[in-house]
Amino acid sequence: MAGLSRSSFIDLRPLRVSPPFARLWIGSTLSGLGGQLTIVAVMLQVYDITQDTFAVAMIAVAGLLPMIVAGLYGGMLADAFDRRIVALLAASVTWISTALLALLAWTHVETVWWLYVLSVVNSAANSIVMATKSAITPRLLPRELLPAAAALNGITVGVMVMAGPALAGILVAVAGYQWTYTIDVVLMFSLFLGLWTLPSIKPEGTIVRPGLESLKDGWAFLRRAPNIRLQYLLDIIAMTFGQPLALFPAVGAVLLGGGPITTGVMTAAFAVGAFFSSLFSGPIGRVRHHGLGIERAIQVYGAAILAFGAVLLAGQLGLFAPAVVDASSPNLVLIAIAVVFLAIAGAADNVSAIYRSTMMQSAVPDAIRGRLQGVFIVVVAGGPRIGALYAGTLATLTALWFPPLLGGFVIIGLVGLLVRRHPRFRAYDAENPVP
To answer: What backbone phi and psi angles, to 5 degrees, belong to 326?
Structure first.
C-alpha cells in the first residue's frame, strides 16, 4: 500500500462538490444492496421449488420484454417531465412489488408464477429508476467529474452485489425467504430519501412528449451516433455470451457443492472485482481514449469467463473433489479458483461500464439523454437476460461448463473484429466527446 500514490485511489470529489449527488449515491447503494437480496432469493426459491436450472433462467427471460418497454418509455418520460418525480413514482412500484414478495413469503402462499410476475414488475419499474437516475447525474456534476461518478457507481455495484448475494444465501439458509425480502423493503426507504431531497430536474432543450414521435426522435439521434451504437453492441455481446449467473444454483447444488452459500459467494465475486477496480480507479479517469478502454476491458472479461468455464470442466472431471460433492461437502479448491476468475470478470466489466457510462453522459445532449439512457439500461439489463437464456438452455442441452467456455471465445473474437472495423471508436477522445 505504501507504494500506491493517492491518485491511484478513487476520486471522491463528486461527493464533496454535490451534496444532492452524495445523498442519491448513498440511497442507491443501500437500496441496491436490498435489491440484490431479493434477486438472489427469488433465484434460490424458484430452484428450491422446481430443481430446474432452466426455470431459474426463465426468471430473467420472462422480464425481458416488459423491461425493454419500461426502459424505453421511462427514458421518454425522463425527457418530458421532472426527472425527480419520474424516478420517485417508478421507485414506488418497485417497493410495492418487493413488499408483495415479502407478504407472500410470510403467508406461505408463494408459487413459481407469483415469483415470476412480481420479478417482472420489479425489474420493469427498476429499469425506469435506473434510466432516470443516469440522466440526472450529469445535471448534478460538471463533465470532468463524470468518470469519477461512474467509478463511485462501481463502488455501489461492488458493495450491493458483493455483500447482497452472500448475505442473501446466508439469510435464506438461516432465516428464510420472508426475512430476506423484508430487509429489502426496509432498505428501499433510503432511495426514497435520496430522490425526495433532489432539486427539480426538468429536461433542457426541446421537449418531445412521450409517444411515437419521441421514440423516432431518439432513434434518429442514435442513427447519427456510431460510437454510442457500437458500445451498445459490444456490451450485448459480452452479456449474452458471458453471463453465467443462471448456472450458479446448479453449480452449488450438483457440480461444486456448497448449495446456496456457494451461489451467493460466486455471485458476490463479480462485485468484489467491481469494488476493487473502482477503489483504484484514479488512473481510469485520466484515460482519454474510452473506446479503446472499452474494447480491452471486454476482451479481458471474455478471457475470465472462458477460464471460469474451464474450472467448471475441471469440476465435471472430478478434480480436487471430495468423495461426495454436496451442500455440506463442497469442492473448496475449485470454488476458490472460480471466485478469482469471476472477480477478474467483474473488475473488467466495471472498467468497461465506467467508460461506457461516461461516454453516454458526456456525448449525448440533455434533451435526449433520458431516451438514450433508457436504451442504455435496456442493453445493460437486457443483455444478461438473453445471456441467462443462452446459458440455461445450452447447459440443459450439454453441460454446465460448456456455455461459459464457448462464450469466452466468442466474446474475444467478436469484440476484436467489430472494433477493428470501426477505427473511430478506438480513437474516441473524452476531451472532445462525439456520439
So the answer is: -155, -165
HSE-up of residue 403 (Cα within 13 Å, Cβ side): 27
Q: Is residue 211 part of a domain?
A: yes
The pLDDT of residue 348 is 94
CA–CA gap between residue 73 and residue 69 (Å, rounded) = 6
Q: Is the pLDDT of residue 238 over 90?
A: yes
CA 364 → CA 139, 270, 354, 358, 435, distances in Å? Answer: 13, 29, 16, 10, 6
For 301-328, what is the mean pLDDT?
Answer: 84
Q: Is the Cβ–Cβ distance between 171 and 37 less than 8 Å?
A: yes
| Contact (CB, 8 A) for 86 and 128 | yes
pTM of the model: 0.78
User: Which domain, by its residues, includes 395?
Assistant: 14-426
Q: What domain count does the chain have?
A: 1
The answer to whether position 363 is within a domain reads yes
As to burial, measured by CB atoms within 10 angstroms (0-12 exposed, 13-18 middle, 19+ buried), residue 192 is middle
Q: Which of 120, 141, 109, 140 is nearest to 65 (CA)?
A: 120
Give SS3 for 329: strand
What CATH number corresponds to the domain at position 206? 1.20.1250.20
By C-alpha distance, which of 255, 270, 107, 265 is closest to 177?
107
Each residue's pLDDT tens digit, 359-386: 888 888 888 888 887 777 777 766 777 8
C-alpha cell, 256: 461444486
Give, as one character, the DSSP assignment of residue 253: I
What pLDDT, in 10s, does the model give residues 55-78?
877 777 777 778 788 888 888 888
DSSP string across 340-351: HHHHHHHHHHHH
136 touches 83 (CB < 8 A): yes
427: Cα within 13 Å, side-chain hemisphere: 6
- How far does the chain reach from its first CA to its final CA, in angstroms? 38
Contact 203, 78 (CB under 8 A): yes
pLDDT at position 1 over 60? no
- Quick check: is 8 in a domain? no
In a domain, 187, yes or no: yes
Task: Say how far apart CA 44 and CA 37 lie, in whole Å.
Answer: 11
